[in-house]
Amino acid sequence: MTTRAVAERLVQGDALAKAEILCLLQTDTENAFLRIEARKRADSVFGKTIYLRGLVEISSYCKNNCLYCGLRRSAEAARYRLSDEDIFAACAAGYEDGIRTFVLQGGEDGYFTDERVCRIVSGLKQRFPEAAVTLSLGERSRESYARLREAGADRYLLRHETASPDHYEKLHPPEMTLSSRMECLRNLKELGYQVGAGFMVGSPYQTVETIAEDLLFLQEFRPHMIGIGPFIPQSKTPFAGFSAGRLEDTLKLLSILRLMHPRALLPATTALATLSPDGREEGIRAGANVVMPNLSPPCVRGKYAIYDNKAFETIDTVRKRIQDIGYEIKNVRGDYQ
Ligand code: SAH
């Protein structure tokens, strides 16, 4: 089995077995081929269109203690919460700039009860009926996800982080389990959300084996959105001393994911833009079709420090940079088709 033969099977749309995925991950000889084919595939599905998602970071409080994340409860971090009015104002500014999907993300913060989040979601839907609302608020009960969906939430992002139970244990405290993460993802799908899963590239203790498990899980679960970005160490976490994930590995995985999931919404993440000055554009060239500019109000900027030196760019800058590489941002919701 040559790496080229496996890459060609992937391009044809065949599902790969674990041994084939490992073969693809272990050698980098076909990276350029994968990247070209992945971009061709993205162009055939989405043309030259890139979708925008406006990210509003609603809370930096978190009850969890994930070892990689700067918002973990034991980290000495600046904590804030946005009010309903702050959130509506941030989204209104984004709407003016053409944003038609709002992503509300935060740590797992008990202040954001179902009642409060439902009020915010329906308030957004009332103000901006053409816009999609995506939530990224971590693990909640099935009942909670059902209520938020009824209030109008369209999509939910919950990265599975790693599909290997052993690896999951190394990234999280004992009270967090991969099985409850997976249960949340299944519930979200059953409730009719467009669902996003995903993982960090180059996280501590990650191996080609664990990445193969991630790809197999995604091949089976078939999420509508897949968020991957490099791990970037955060100085206030136990993983401060680990090295960041590599740009090249992230781009290769974006290409593999595009070929495995032709219609998936695949962001070129802020973490990728943080790792390298033209990371976002490289991500698009490798097959990504979504970018997520930050809409959080300036007063909280720098306080949502999940990793160090997080990149910040205005929508205008992002739009311009994407035009410069021959792509165009459309002011549409950009649902999964
Ligand atoms: N509380 C929400 C949002 C978490 S932040 C939730 O649990 O889904 C969103 C994502 O950022 C996480 O899922 C994780 O994959 C990523 N992230 C966290 N710390 C990171 C780090 N140090 N480097 C890169 N990505 C990180």
What report would you give on this structure?
This protein has 13 helices and 9 strands. Helix content is 42%, strand content 13%. The relative contact order is 0.17. It is globular. The two termini are 34 Å apart. The strands form 2 sheets. Strands 2-3-4-5-6-7 form a 6-stranded parallel sheet. By secondary structure, the protein is of the alpha/beta class. Strand 3, helix 5 (114-127) and strand 4 form a beta-alpha-beta unit. It has a single domain (31-329), classed as Aldolase class I (TIM Barrel), CATH 3.20.20. The chain binds S-adenosyl-L-homocysteine. The site of S-adenosyl-L-homocysteine (SAH) has 18 residues, from loops.
Give a count of the beta strands, DSSP E runs of length 2 or more: 9
Any guess at the CATH architecture? Answer: Alpha-Beta Barrel
User: Number of DSSP helices?
Assistant: 13
Order of helices and strands: HHHEEHEHEHEHHEHEHHHEHE
What is the average of the pLDDT values? 97
Cα distance spanning the termini = 34 Å
Helix/strand/pairing class, anyone?
Answer: alpha/beta
Indicate the CATH topology.
TIM Barrel
Main sheet: strands, sense, barrel: 6 strands, parallel
Rg estimate, integer Å? 19 Å
Query: What percent of the residues sit in helical stretches (DSSP H or I)?
Result: 40-55%
Uncertain ranges: none
Shape: globular
Q: What is the CATH first-level class name?
A: Alpha Beta
Number of domains: 1
Give the names of the bound compounds. S-adenosyl-L-homocysteine
Strand percent estimate: 5-15%
CATH superfamily: Aldolase class I
Strand order of the largest sheet: 2-3-4-5-6-7
